[in-house]
Design goal:
By secondary structure, the chain is α+β, with helices and mostly antiparallel strands. It has nine helices and six strands, in the order H-H-H-H-H-H-E-E-E-H-H-E-E-E-H. Strands 1, 2, 3, 4, 5 and 6 form a six-stranded mixed beta sheet that branches. Helix 4 runs antiparallel to helix 5. The two termini are 47 Å apart. The C terminus is likely disordered.
Length: 262
């Protein structure tokens, strides 16, 4: 969702109320200013399209060099074109000098880059694969879900905490339905439904290099919990790199469940 818009967060203290009040007093001039801008723009329309396309592509490439989300550079490029064209008009009618226009462009570009970086961080935090894994680990931390050692049987473990998979030093072996169901229930409890269906999540996990898959599938058959099961096998190091934290140890023994010590 956040990738399709560019957010600008303002604190009240950051607004120059005096300048805002002065601009509001002169609001009657805005229609005339816009009419002048359109009259200046209209004769250029035949040659403007290729120029705008070239400018858009160049600015998008500059913004992409910062490594932000794919759609954020596009949003920045559109805003930059508007700023650049508006300042060009201002220069040609004498509202500002070329030097002042260049200074405003430089300030505008730095402001757009800062917005892009902030938006990129927001988009990354909402990335479905990252969100799924963080919520999964939240359930484990709250003892509402269990990740067992790879060779530990989960026989007799019912209800909460729910068995969602196994761990070893190299991989996380998730029971797809159990893990996705647990995360989906948590999201519903928080009033924010998980944004992807299970099959789409599996594809994204594989596309991002987080899982090992059999040909034509997004899962593998592995021996876990004493038997062969079809699981979503995630690469432990890749998951830790995505979350920028180490995965927890397997869940501790639970009293009264087959295969666990007291």
């Amino acid at each position: 969702m956040w990738a399709r818009m560019l957010l600008i967060e303002l604190e009240r203290a950051e607004v120059n109320l005096g300048a805002l009040a002065e601009a509001q007093r002169q609001a009657g001039r805005l229609p005339h200013a816009l009419a002048g801008y359109i009259a200046w723009l209209a004769p250029q329309m035949r040659t403007l399209a290729p120029l705008l396309r070239e400018t858009f592509q160049g600015v998008r490439a500059r913004a992409s060099a910062d490594g932000e989300h794919l759609r954020v550079p596009e949003a920045l490029a559109h805003l930059w074109i508007g700023l650049h064209a508006g300042l060009k008009y201002a220069e040609e009618i004498g509202a500002c000098s070329e030097g002042q226009g260049e200074a405003l462009r430089a300030r505008g570009w730095e402001a757009l880059r800062a917005l892009g970086r902030a938006q990129g961080r927001l988009v990354e935090s909402e990335r479905p694969t990252r969100r799924f894994l963080r919520l999964l680990l939240t359930l484990v931390a709250q003892r509402r879900a269990v990740l067992l050692p790879k060779d530990q049987s989960g026989e007799g473990l019912h209800g909460e905490p729910a068995l969602i998979g196994w761990l070893d030093e190299h991989s996380m072996y998730l029971l797809p339905d159990a893990a996705f169901g647990a995360v989906s229930r948590l999201c519903r409890d928080m009033g924010e439904p998980f944004p992807l269906r299970q099959d789409r999540l599996k594809r994204d996990v594989a596309r991002e290099g987080l899982s090992d898959c059999e040909a034509g599938r997004h899962s593998v058959v592995a021996r876990v919990g004493g038997q062969r099961r079809r699981v979503l096998r995630l690469r432990r190091r890749a998951v830790e790199a995505l979350l920028d934290e180490e995965l927890p140890a397997a869940s501790p023994p639970v009293t009264g469940v087959t295969g666990f010590s007291e």
